[in-house]
Design goal:
alpha/beta, 8-stranded mixed β-sheet, 7-stranded mixed β-sheet, 15 helices, about 35% helix, elongated
């Protein structure tokens, strides 16, 4: 039996569209999990430097070699195509036989194969609609999915319809996003339920030694960086966290915190106005006896629901807050505030704004001093406090999972507008007039009083 050379064996494997010889043992773990997927979606939650993108690109290429089909490789940023994807594809193709080697069409940003298959490359920041209008029947790779904006919309409204009449597979592969408040976590949860998920940390990487792991750990500026980047944990990037002082155990409560003085306490409504972003409402009172701001309720409006009438209805939504001490709002829409005040006899006060970081510092200090308590029913407020982050330049709040941290903004306005140093509880509270001393002197007829007085001064 004659033997064949390594180059001949590799050429044969390329003809068979079997490139698994390129995988290290960690990538084989991903591949095994992927081979067992029954539905459309597969999600890989993997550590930095694991080789996850390399593995995923091989799966795209194998599919394109096996049948005539349309595949897509999409990244969060156009620069990733140039700096990461193209070099990796060329590395994979280094030993590909020339007669089946895909050719790159730079003008169309796609690889073309001789069997008619195409692999289109899309940077979603430059071409957010780059996935639309395609009938896809190959493999769709969403690389670093944890950094792709509107991931759920892209998947549900674009990819699923485009792959409806085919056996196309969708691969989402990523390290952790900078905040757990990203759609990637939802897809991880979905894939776990469907047995289409793999999680591999730096400890699962066969190419990394214990010494290297310790080096990576020391090079990370914070523990959350290491946990997120190398241990695949959903944690907020500490350097971008808007309110790191918020502590769920210390700053939330269950049930009611009202005491006997509640009827006297000053009630507040604060709201941040948005149309594309939600309009977020907070309903709170200041507990003078505890010296704490108590957040009891929340509500929101979005899109077409944001009208002056709807906002007014939300201002009257909850009992005990229909006649608040103050209604505080963003000052960006003074016409709306004027309409509320004139047409609905509200007394909405536009917040006095300072530099954003200075305003946030006030809120952070309030949490540091444990001056705020939040009902566990206020799920959106709590979520944003736990997961809200700045944009990369820290000039404004990041847009996350269909919001702009609007509840944090409303809470900033509320803290700024508090009147916390005046005791609203009357001195007479708790005094029963039936048991109190009565110093009242009965009145006497004026004539009798004059008679008695004249006797005193009679000469």
């Amino acid at each position: 039996m004659s033997s064949i050379s390594r180059s001949q064996a590799i050429a044969l494997l390329w003809q068979r569209a079997d490139l698994s010889y390129k995988f290290h043992e960690g990538q084989r773990v991903i591949d095994k999990a992927y081979s067992q997927v029954q539905n459309k979606l597969f999600v890989g939650n993997c550590s930095r430097r694991f080789g996850k993108t390399y593995w995923a690109l091989i799966k795209v290429i194998e599919t394109a070699l096996r049948k005539k089909c349309k595949s897509i490789v999409a990244t969060a940023y156009q620069t990733d195509l140039v700096e990461i994807i193209l070099p990796l594809v060329e590395e994979i193709l280094a030993d590909c036989p020339e007669d089946i080697r895909p050719k790159f069409n730079k003008q169309r940003s796609l690889y073309q194969l001789k069997n008619g298959s195409t692999i289109k490359l899309v940077g979603l920041d430059k071409k957010p609609n780059g996935l639309r209008g395609n009938k896809l029947d190959g493999t769709i790779l969403l690389d670093e999915a944890g950094f792709i904006s509107n991931l759920d919309k892209i998947y549900s409204s674009v990819i699923v319809p485009a792959t409806m009449y085919s056996d196309a597979k969708v691969i989402m592969i990523s390290t952790q996003p900078t905040s757990p408040d990203h759609e990637f976590k939802k897809f991880c949860d979905k894939a776990q339920l469907e047995n289409a998920y793999v999680k591999l940390t730096i400890f699962d990487n066969p190419r990394v030694s214990a010494e290297m792991i310790e080096t990576y750990r020391k090079e990370c500026l914070t523990e959350s960086d290491f946990n997120r980047e190398y241990l695949c944990k959903f944690e907020v990037d500490e350097s971008l966290h808007i309110i790191p002082e918020f502590n769920f155990d210390k700053h939330t409560f269950e049930g009611s915190s009202r005491d006997e003085f509640f009827k006297y306490y000053r009630k507040y409504i604060s709201f941040d106005i948005g149309v594309i972003d939600p309009t977020a409402f907070i309903y709170a009172y200041y507990d003078y006896s505890k010296q704490k701001l108590i957040l009891e309720c929340e509500s929101e409006l979005q899109g077409k629901d944001v009208t002056t009438e709807a906002i007014n209805s939300n201002l009257e939504m909850f009992k005990d807050y229909d006649k608040p001490f103050k209604i505080i709002a963003d000052n960006n829409n003074k016409i709306l505030i004027q309409d509320l005040n004139q047409a609905y006899q509200k007394n909405v006060i536009p917040v006095s704004k300072d530099e954003l970081h200075a305003m946030i510092s006030e809120l952070r200090f309030s949490f540091k001093q444990d001056k705020i308590l939040i009902s566990k029913e206020c799920k959106s407020i709590i979520s944003q406090l736990q997961n809200g982050i700045w944009n990369k330049s820290k000039t404004e709040f990041a847009r996350q999972n269909k919001h702009h941290n609007d509840f944090i903004a409303a809470l900033v306005y509320l803290v700024r507008g508090l009147a916390e140093y005046e005791n609203p509880v009357p001195i007479s509270h708790g005094i029963d007039p039936r048991n109190s001393f009565n110093y009242h002197i009965p009145a006497q007829p004026q004539s009798q009083s004059i008679t008695e007085l004249s006797k005193l001064f009679k000469i």
